[in-house]
Amino acid sequence: MGESPGCCSVWAHCLHCLYSCHWKKCPKDRTQTNQCECIWFGLLFLTFLLSLGWLYVVLILLNDLHNFNEFLFQHWGHWMDWSPAFLLVISLLVTYASLLLLLALLLRLCGQPLCLHTAHKVLLLLIILLVAAGLVGLEVQWRQEWHSLRLSLQATAPFLHIGAVAGITLLAWPVADTFYRIHRRGPKILLLLLFFGVALAIYLVPLFISSACIMEPKDLPPKPELMGHRGAPMLAPENTLMSLRKTAECGAVVFETDVMVSSDGIPFLMHDERLTRTTDVASVFPHRVNSHSSDFSWTELKRLNAGAWFLQRRPFWGAKQLSGPDRKDAENQTVPALEELLKEAEARNLSVMFDLRRPPRNHTYHDTFVNQTLETVLSSGVPQAMVLWLPDEDRAHVQQRAPQMRQIYGHLGGHSTERPQFLNLPYQDLPLLDINPLKPT
């Protein structure tokens, strides 16, 4: 690959110094970029694409990183919001790869040979290994997130395509400059075929884009109604009465929560099998921090604070934006009983849906926890229709005792007696074509 002397200016010398980390001028006998450096340039371009793609993955899955935080908490016992760290690291990687690629392209335009320093080469390999480890971890531990990425392209593909067109257009200039600097015919033809092949593929992509975002305004469907997962956990401690109130203020129609049964038979709101994450059990009952949440009596549960952790750990960014009265309210939250929740939800015109978690084997209500919860719902006096019953255990008995209660199913198959009208499924697992047959006629 022959090159003309180009612009031997101070500017070109600075670019050469930053790229090669050699502060002396390039020797006059070194006017060519050897084949090894061309391979490293290709690896640099690949690193840029990988880091940019990983940034897109992190941004799309940012809403699900709370699950990753909980996963680490369950295994390590220490809470930390990892989303800022993920964003900072990947942003630095993308910035580094982008600047290095820009230096290489500018050096090509100035006719300078490429000579990547060993430190840059090591960092490029580390970036590739880091991104590869992230992709492998995603495949092994959170494979369902690939469906989230696929669905996200329905919204982002048109805009990503515009960016790709702009990128290939800007790349045409250094490609043309390289083409005219090459003297051998074979590499020229290869460069043209590669560039025009990529450009043609990019320009044909719109033929394969199916985006729900591209439609006439008159064809827009009505907005879906909102459901608060554990209430409004970004504005209040999860699974508390304050979270329920914030859910109503946000205009949601359903409060989704998790229910366990205490050792003395009182259903209460709690997600984790251990109380350490969302209560002060470590200070109130220091010798029982590893006990199952259902092993505590209702009297003991009422002694726990279920809100101070929200202000201390700040699981979501909204915690530091709370007003003074809201902060005081959060600090005073306790573990609510299911009956309390139902009455508060009725007053605020909210429906309630909950996961019901079976107690441990040695628990008094291990076999009767469903009936115990059902009795609490029926004795609360709230309308049956405001309860969305999700547990599959003893569903036939529940339907017989509370026929007006709306039954929510967590899977598609196995309903021989009726066609389900309400489903609680991960959005990644239910294509639109599967929903249409379930609509009531």
What does this structure look like?
By secondary structure, the chain is mostly helical. It has 3 domains: 1-143, no CATH class; 144-214; 227-408, Alpha-Beta Barrel (TIM Barrel), CATH 3.20.20. It has helices at 10-20, 35-60, 65-76, 83-109, 118-141, 145-181, 185-204, 241-249, 281-284, 298-301, 308-313, 324-331, 338-347, 369-379, 395-401, 432-435, and strands at 227-229, 254-261, 267-269, 351-356, 387-389, 406-407. Strands 1, 2, 3, 4, 5 and 6 form a 6-stranded mixed beta sheet that branches.
Q: How does the major sheet shape up?
A: 6 strands, mixed
Q: Rg to the nearest angstrom?
A: 30 Å
Low-confidence stretches: 1-7
Q: How far is the first residue's CA from the last residue's CA?
A: 70 Å
* Helix/sheet category: mainly alpha
Domain count, please report it.
3
Average pLDDT rating: 85
Number of strands: 6
Helix content: 40-55%
Q: Class of the largest domain in CATH?
A: Alpha Beta
Spell the H/E element sequence: HHHHHHHEHEEHHHHHEHEHEH
Alpha plus pi helix count? 16
Which features does this protein show?
441 residues, mainly alpha, TIM Barrel, 3 domains, six-stranded mixed beta sheet, 6 strands, 50% helix, elongated, disordered N terminus
Summarize the structure.
This protein is mainly alpha-helical and 441 residues long.
